[in-house]
Structure formats: structure tokens, C-alpha cells
Amino acid sequence: TRVGLNGRAWAFAEEVVVLRGDVGAAGAALQAPMPGSVLAVNVAAGDAVATGDVLVVLESMKMEVQVVAPADGVAAEVAVAAGDQVKLGQVLIAVGPKEVVL
């Protein structure tokens, strides 16, 4: 999208974090939507997560991208740490289903 005003122009792009995997009973693996570096990891393995929680913040080309939880569940595995370099499609976090206590 381009916006122009008073002879100046700005270009904007929306970043979409892609979930790869099924968020069903087996859970899902959240993958890096672009290569870059990990600025922050906001959860640890075993932490409960809610839909929309920011789990990881990536930086690529001076742009920050938030990777959010696609559904309520548990961070089953955290595969990255702050400062790590990641490749496109690299698994960042595995989110599993919430455990049901009977």
C-alpha cells in the first residue's frame, strides 16, 4: 500500500505470521515467517498461552515481527532464545493443546 501526501510518498506492508501445522489435538509448530534474529522469547516450555499472546519477537531488516499464539494451549517446546539467528521456516515454538484436568 502506498500513501501520498503533499508530494511525499510512504509505502506500508502488513506482516502476517504464518502458522504451519494443525492447531488440533496434536498442537502446532510456529515457524519463522522470515530470516532474522530473535529479539525476545516471552514464554518457557510448559507455560500456558492464550490466543494472541506474543510468544516471540523477531527482527529482520530493522522491522520487528511478533509471532503470536494461534490458539489457547501450552508452550510444549521453545526452540530458540534471544539473540539466535533464524532461517525462514525454522521452528520457533511448538504449541500443544491445553491439558484437561478431570
Walkthrough of the structure:
By secondary structure, the protein is mostly beta strands. Helix content is 0%, strand content 53%. The protein has no helices and 11 strands. It has strands at 2-5, 8-11, 19-24, 27-31, 36-41, 48-49, 54-60, 63-68, 73-78, 85-86, 91-96. The strands form 3 sheets. The chain has a 5-stranded antiparallel beta sheet, with no helix packed on it. A 4-stranded antiparallel beta sheet has the order 8-7-5-10, with no helix packed on it. A two-stranded antiparallel sheet has the order 1-2. The radius of gyration is 16 Å and the shape is elongated. Mean pLDDT is 82; it is low at 16-23.
Features:
102 residues; mainly beta; elongated; 4-stranded antiparallel β-sheet; single chain; 5-stranded antiparallel β-sheet
Shape: elongated
Strand content: over 45%
Annotation, overall tally of beta strands: 11
Q: Output the helix-strand order.
A: EEEEEEEEEEE
Q: Considering DSSP H and I runs of 4 or more, what fraction of the residues is helical? A: under 10%
Distance between the termini: 50 Å
Spatial ordering of strands, largest sheet:
3-4-11-9-6
Question: Whole-number average pLDDT?
Answer: 82
Q: What is the radius of gyration?
A: 16 Å
Category from helices, strands and their pairing: mainly beta
Biggest β-sheet strands, sense, barrel: 5 strands, antiparallel
Low-confidence stretches: 16-23
Q: How many helices? A: 0
